[in-house]
């Protein structure tokens, strides 16, 4: 639920499918262009995601707090590094739906394909691989126990088993 909360803001990006399908229509539906970084990237949606995580969790308060933090980490990462290659920025309308008054932007925002984003991704992937090797489980376990076990076994075969 916490991992889902971290990617939930980008649910507003599913409009890209409709936009691609209707691109050559007389009146295309610009759902991605008009709504990505708006519908899901705000305080209102973060509160909805936080409440949903709390309602579905066994440890409600802890899960809600971590879901709220994961959601906001996503917003922070978007603020730091999601500028388009053409220099276009997506301001984050943080106070929606309560107010349109505050749009978050940062003049130093990196492009999405920047070395900073690539480096950050590489470090996180290495951390996940290390954690899988050390703890014996990985995020793959969310989707496939067999895939998780194979991944961990492969890491341990290559790098040895961690000392207990």
Number of strands: 0
Rg (CA only): 19 Å
* Structural class by helix and strand composition: mainly alpha
Listing every helix as H and every strand as E from the N terminus to the C terminus, the arrangement reads HHHHHHH
Please report the distance between the alpha carbons of the first and last residues: 30 Å
Which of globular, elongated, flat, extended, rod-shaped describes the shape?
Answer: globular
Regions with pLDDT < 50 over 5+ consecutive residues? none
Explain briefly what this protein structure is:
With 164 residues, the protein is an all-alpha fold. The chain has seven helices and no strands. It is globular and about 60 Å long.
State the main characteristics:
164 residues; mainly alpha; 2 domains; 7 helices; 0% strand; globular
Structure description:
The protein is mainly α. Helix 4 packs antiparallel against helix 5 (60-81). It has helices spanning 2-7, 15-21, 31-35, 43-56, 60-81, 115-135, 145-159. 55% of the residues lie in helices and 0% in strands. It folds into 2 domains: 2-110, no CATH class; 114-164, no CATH class.
